[in-house]
Amino acid sequence: MGHLRRGGALAAVLTLLLAGAAPASAAGPDRYRNPVSARFADTFADPVVVRGDDGLWYAFGTSDPLREGEGRTHRVPIARSADLVDWTYAGDAFAPDQRPAYAAPGAAFWAPDVRRVAGRWVMYVTVTDTGVSDDTFDTAVGVATAPSPAGPWTFADTPVVAPRPGAGGGYLWTIDPSQLTGADGRHWLYCGSYYGGISVTELSPDGLRAVGTPTPVAIDNKFEGAYVLRRDGWYYLFASTANCCAGPATGYSVQVGRSRDPRGPFTDRDGQRLDVSRAGGTPVLTQNGNRWIGTGHNAVLTDLSGQDWIAYHAIDRADPYLDEPFGVNERPMLLDRLDWIGGWPAVNAGAGPSDTARPAPVTTGPVDARFATADLRGWRAGHGRWQATGGVLTGSGTLTSRTRIGGDLRVETDLRLTGAATAGLRLGGVDVRVGRGRLSAGAATTALPPGLDLGDRHNLAIEVRGRQLVVTLSPSRLGDPVAQVSLRLPRPGAGELSVRAEGGPAEFDNVSAVRLYRPARHTVPDLRVGPVLRGYSDEFTGGLDPAWRWVRQDPAATVYGGALRWPVQDADLSGTGNTAGVLLRDAPAGNYVAETKVTLDLGEDSVRNYQQAGLVAYVDDDRFARLTQVAIWNTRQVEYGYELPFAGQPVYGGSIVGTPGSTTWLRLAHRVDPVNGEHEFRAGSSRDGKHWTWGAVWTFPADTTPRIGLVAHGGATPAVTAEFDYLRFHR
Questions:
Q1: Contact 655/663 with Cβ under 8 angstroms?
Q2: For the chain, does the N or the C end have fewer beta carbons within 10 angstroms?
Q3: Which residues, in sequence order, are CB contacts of 66 under 8 Å at separation 6+?
Q4: What is the model's pLDDT at position 38?
C-alpha cells in the first residue's frame, strides 16, 4: 500500500481500523546488509523485483520522494542491480505529466506489480484518484506495457479494474494489484484492501482486461498487499495485515494461506480460512525486536541457485518518517531469505527480518552466458549454426558449454521458439525439451496448457538434487510455473550442458548453471515456557490478590466462580482519552512469560467496534503494548497494539497475531536485550492453550519498568463480560 494521506475520511478509516545501521547495503564479498535500497533511496515502499531480458534485476516501488529533503515524488521509481544487493536508480516509469485518461490530475501510482504476459512486460498499478467522482480516493487498477522492465511504459486507455462503489459509501479500496499465471495458462489478478477485502479476477489472454467475476479470497478489514505464487501444486496467498503507516508504531506483517485453486478458499497451517470473520493467516514475516518494524507488502523472487527471497519494505523505528513527523513514512526495501519448511514459507527459517550481514543471493556461477557480444569461445558447436547477436543466442542444432558441471545444480535459460519444433537443454545426457504441446525430460513428459505460445519468451529451469531432476517452465520465473515434470536419474547428475533446437531455430538467453541452494530443514525453535511462578500468579480462586493495583478502578470487575469477570467498558486506552481501567501487578525480574485465558463472546461478522479484552504490558497511559482479542468492524482478530510518545503526542499502531476463538489464550514473552537493556515483548495466541502462534515484538526503553496487567474495554454495546481464568507468570 502507498502512504495514505493524513486527514480527512481516509485517515479516519485507518485510525478506526487499527486505532541506526550503516546505510550501505554491501557488507563484503558474498554478503549484504539491509536495507538493500540504501544506495539510491531512503524510502522505496511496496517493492516488486523481476529479472529482465538482459539478465539484470529490476525493482519497482510506490510513488514517493526517494530521499529526505528531495520534495519531488517519483512516479513508480525503478532501480536496477546485477546482484540484488547493490542497486542504482534507473529512472521513473512515468513522466510527471503522464497518466491514463481516466486518472484525475492529482492521482498517485502505488504498489506496482510487473510480469511478463503474452510476450511483453506488463505493469499493474494502483491509480489513487480517477474521474468517476469527486471522491479523491476512487481507486482503480491501471495497466501499462513496455518492451523491457526499464521501459518506456505506456498506459492502456482503460483500467483493468475500475473504481467500485462501496455499500458503506465511498469506493472500495481497489489497490495493491498482483498478477499470476496459473497452471492452466490462465491469467489472474488479485487486488483489494481493508475496505472491500482482497478479490481475484480472471484476465483476458493479453492480461489487459478483467473478464471474470471477482471472487473474494481474503476478508475485508484485515488484509491487503496480495502476492500469489504456486509451489508443489499449492497456490500461496501472501497478504499484509495491520497498519502500513503508523510511523514508530507500525506493526505491518505478512501472513499466508494456501489453496489448490487460484480462487481459493485459502486456509492457513491450522486450517483456518482467510475469508471469514475469524480469519486465519500463518505468519511469514513479522518484526522481531531489532531495528525493523512494519515489515510488509512483499514480493517473492528466486536467485540463480533456486533459493527464494522475499522483498518487502520496513520502517527503521529510530527513523520512521521521511522528512518531518507524521508525514511520509520512510519505508526502504529489504531482502531476506525465504525458506519453505513443511510446506509453509518462513523468513530466515522463522527468525524474521535481518539487520546484520547475511549471505547474499546467488546471481552468477560457473556458467553465466548473457550473449552481450558475438564471442562464443566458451561454447563448441556439435552441429547446426549458432550466432550471438542483439543480446541473444540464435540457432539450431546443438551448442555445448566448455565448462563441465556436476553435483546438485540449477540450470536455466530464457527460451523462445522462432521456428524450431522443439528446443531446450541437454544436461548430463538428459534431454529437456519444450515443443509440440509438451514439456519433456528424458522419458518423463507432461502437456503444456492449451494455447501456450512458445514464440513468447519463457524461462526453462532444471534443478538436480541427488538423483532427482525437476524441470519447470514459467513466463516470469516468479512462482508462476505453467508446466513441471520430474525424473528419477540412474545416477547423480554431472557432465556437459548444451542448448538444443530441432526442426528450426530458437532463441536462448541468460543461460546459467550454479550449485543448487541448500534448503533449511527446520524452523527456529519455538519459545520454551518453564514452570509457573506461583508468587507472581493469580488463579482467581479466592478474591483478588492484594498484589494487584488499579489504574482507574472499575468496581464492576469482580472475582467469583474461579474467574475475574469484567464487563467490557465503554472506554479506551489509546490516544489522549485514557479512560479505561487497567488492572496491574509487578512482573518478575529478567526473562519471563505472562499468560492468561480469556473468554469473550464477540459473536461473528457484526460490527462491535472495538470491544476487546486481554493482556497489557504497561508503563503509563502513553506507553503500553496491548494483546487482546478484539472486534474490528466485521472481523474478530488478535491485535497486538502498541502506543508510545513521539514528537509530543501519543502514536498508536499494532500487529496481528493468530486467530481468536470465543476463548483465547494469550502470552507476552518478556526478554531483556543483553546489548541495550531494552524490554522486548513477543506476543503469542492460541485457540486451545496447546498450539501457539507467535507474532510481533514490541520494545520498551531500558529505563522503564513495565508491569503486566489485564484490560477489558472498547465499547459497552452490546453488553458483554470478559472472563479471565488466571494470570500466570512462567520463567
A1: no
A2: C
A3: 40, 41, 42, 43, 44, 74, 77, 89
A4: 98
Which residues 6+ apart lie within 8 Å of 546 measured at CB?
Answer: none
What whole-number distance in Å separates Cα of residue 422 and Cα of residue 435? Answer: 4
CA distances from 603 to 572, 633, 718, 722 (A): 21, 12, 11, 13
Single-letter amino acid, residue 132: V
Grid coordinates in use for 216?
Answer: 473474494
Digit-coded pLDDT (tens) for 251-306: 999 999 999 999 999 999 999 999 999 999 999 999 999 999 999 999 999 999 99
- 315, 329 in Cβ contact below 8 A? yes
Q: How far apart are CA 440 and CA 502, in angstroms?
A: 14
Tell me what the mean pLDDT of segment 687-705 comes to: 98
Mean pLDDT, rounded, for 157-170: 96
Arithmetic mean of pLDDT, 405-409: 93
C-alpha–C-alpha distance, residues 438 and 415, integer Å: 15
C-alpha cell at 314: 520496513
Q: Which three cell numbers stand for residue 517?
A: 541452494
Indicate the pLDDT class of residue 408, thresholds 50, 70 and 90.
very high
The reported pLDDT for the residue numbered 27 is 64
> What contacts 24+ positions apart, CB below 8 Å, involve 260-264?
260/233, 260/234, 260/235, 261/235, 262/180, 262/182, 262/188, 262/200, 262/228, 262/235, 263/188, 263/200, 263/215, 263/217, 264/200, 264/215, 264/217, 264/237
- Determine contact, residues 74/59, Cβ cutoff 8 Å: no
Which of 612, 564, 562, 594 lies closest to 679, judged by CA? 594
pLDDT at residue 7, as a whole number: 32
Residue 203 CA to residue 207 CA, distance in Å, equals 5
